[in-house]
Design brief:
Blueprint lengths: L1 E6 L5 H10 L3 E7 L3 H10 L4 E3 L3 H5 L5 E4 L6 H10 L3 E5 L6 H14 L3 E4 L6 H12 L5 E11 L8 H16 L6 E7 L9 E8 L3 E8 L1 E13 L3 E5 L7 E11 L10 E10 L8 H15 L8 H19 L5 E2 L5
Parallel strand pairs: 1-2, 1-4, 2-3, 4-5, 5-6, 7-10
Antiparallel strand pairs: 7-11, 8-9, 8-15, 9-10, 11-12, 12-13, 13-14
Helix pairs in contact: 4-5, 5-9, 7-9
The site of nicotinamide-adenine-dinucleotide has 22 residues, from loops.
Amino acid sequence: MIKIGIIGCGHWGPNHIRIFSQLTNSQAAMCADISEERLNRIKQSFPGIRTACDYKQILDDKDIDAVCIASPTDTHFKISKEALLKNKHVLCEKPLALKPEECRELKDLAQKQNLTLMVGHVFIFNPGIVSLKQYIKSGELGTIHYAHSTRTNLGPFRYDVNALWDLAPHDIAIFNYLFDSCPLSVSARGQKCLGTSLEDLAFATLDYPNNIIANVHVSWIDPKKIREITIVGDKKMVVWDDLDNLGPIKLYDKHVEKTATFYETYGEFQLLSREGSITIPKITVSEPLKLQAQHFIDCVTKKAQSSLANAQHGMDVVKTLCAVQESMDKKGECVFITPSA
Ligand SMILES: NC(=O)c1ccc[n+]([C@@H]2O[C@H](COP(=O)([O-])OP(=O)(O)OC[C@H]3O[C@@H](n4cnc5c(N)ncnc54)[C@H](O)[C@@H]3O)[C@@H](O)[C@H]2O)c1
């Protein structure tokens, strides 16, 4: 039984408490939040959990094996570092930190301490996203031309990070996972429409190896809640829509063919669209957060790093976010990303 301490019990932390309470091989033993009111609410829903206003009480508790950090983004590096130094395994919410150097330090520290350090890139555990990966890997889509993601809604607003740092870690983590790589360069625009110091929306174009171009649109001032990714290959196309009740995946047997016919007026070939059927495959429904938590517990039990969402993956996402932010600050200038050693 792995005993977990959850740090940060705001909007998201209670989901981790619920999940770690449900798994057979973990226990949500303790939680911490600077807000007494948040802790009182947790006590009502989870009477067995011990609470603390200072997360250091969790780190000092010899009974706690691991921590799950769901406090604001600018606390992730500090709390993760202190937790690793106190010999606790760490599952840290996205993004792992605000700078690649901080991610590197955490990665090295986890290795030195022989502790699991995982990032909450929960969409990597989403069965729909896993099936996108299978379509790409099996070659069913053919050569990938481009990908496009939309993650929009009206709110919830954040006051610690902008919409890019809040929402895009998900899409960048997904694309890095799907294309087995970090982008080579990025170009992005953002806008502070609500008059705060933070961008409320961003449009980022990421260049992946093999000529794959991926576009990310994130916004918290949009009329529609959308969680969608389109991937276009030269054989088939696929759309993932996390909110579609019919099923999250639609596979389109559509592609464009070049005819060998020569036309005087159209040049050497003609492009013809080929339209086949649309398939909605059955995807087994499993809560991604639960799959993520189980994977973390398995890694902790084996004292291993995650193969899916380890510190290196977390660092690649933070590197990309920094490059996108730099490009936004420079009104769309192309920013190159140096590959990690
Ligand atoms: N994976 C996902 O899908 C997902 C979804 C939502 C949020 N998140 C991430 O979870 C984290 C928290 O997001 P949220 O929406 O719950 O934010 P929130 O603001 O609702 O909650 C944060 C909580 O942390 C507490 N806190 C602040 N400083 C603290 C400290 N030093 N020690 C202990 N508690 C502290 C606050 O009092 C608050 O209750 C963020 O990093 C966010 O990116 C991830």
